[in-house]
Specification:
Oligomer: single chain
Shape: globular
Strand order of the largest sheet: 1-2-3-4-5
CATH class of one domain: Alpha Beta
Distance between the termini: 28 Å
CATH architecture of one domain: 3-Layer(aba) Sandwich
Number of helices: 4
Structural class: alpha+beta
CATH superfamily of one domain: Gcn5-related N-acetyltransferase (GNAT)
C-alpha cells in the first residue's frame, strides 16, 4: 500500500506527507530541547534533514511508514511531525513531536487522534505502541488520554547518548464491526 498521498484533516490542522518543502521548518524546530526525551538527536545539518525526508518518502511509497507534517489550517503554520513506524507489523509505533510554541495547545492529541482513527480503519494490527521516557509527563498524559496503558518498561540509550527510561504504552486495536 502506497501512503505517499495520505492526508488527514482535523478541526484545526492538515496532516500532509513530509516533503522537501518542510526541510527548513523541521531543521529549525527539531532542536536538542525537543529531542530531550526522544531516541533521535537533533540534526546537525540541513542535509541530514533532507536525507531523512527522502528516506521517509520512500518508506511511505513502500507502505512501511507514515510521516506526516502538521500544518495549521488557518495560517499554514508548521506545528510538528507525526509518524507511524512499522505499519505492516502487528504492533506499529506511534510518534509525534511539536515545535516548542505549539506545545500545550492540544495539537498532539488532535493529530494522534486522527492518525489512530485512520490506522484502526485501514491497518491490521494487534496494538499501537508509544514508547515514552518516564520523565516526559506531558507525553505520558497525552497517550493516556488517547487510551494508552503502560505495558512494558526498558532502558535504552538515545542517539545523543542520553539514557532513556521508557514506558511502552499500548493502544489495543478496536475490533472491526462484522456486520452481523
Amino acid at each position: 500500500m502506497d501512503f505517499s498521498q495520505l492526508r488527514l484533516d482535523t478541526p484545526r490542522m492538515k496532516l500532509v506527507p513530509i516533503s522537501e518543502e518542510h526541510t527548513g521548518a523541521v531543521c529549525e524546530h527539531f532542536t536538542a530541547e525537543i529531542t530531550r526525551y526522544m531516541w533521535p538527536s537533533a540534526p546537525k545539518t540541513r542535509q541530514e534533514i533532507a536525507d531523512h525526508v527522502l528516506l521517509k518518502q520512500l518508506a511511505m511509497r513502500k507502505g512501511e511508514q507514515i510521516a506526516l507534517i502538521l500544518i495549521r489550517k488557518d495560517n499554514r503554520e508548521f506545528l510538528g511531525y507525526a509518524s507511524l513506524h512499522e505499519v505492516q507489523s502487528r504492533s506499529p509505533e506511534l510518534g509525534i513531536w511539536l515545535k516548542k510554541s505549539a506545545q500545550g495547545h492540544y495539537y498532539g492529541y488532535e493529530a494522534l487522534s486522527a492518525l489512530i482513527e485512520w490506522a484502526e480503519a485501514t491497518l491490521h494490527y494487534d496494538y499501537l505502541k508509544y514508547p515514552v521516557d518516564k520523565s516526559n509527563y506531558p507525553s505520558r498524559k497525552l497517550i493516556e488520554k488517547l487510551g494508552g496503558t503502560p505495558q512494558d518498561e526498558y532502558v535504552k540509550c538515545s542517539e545523543s547518548g542520553r539514557v532513556l527510561h521508557e514506558l511502552e504504552y499500548r493502544i489495543s486495536h478496536a475490533p472491526l464491526e462484522s456486520g452481523l
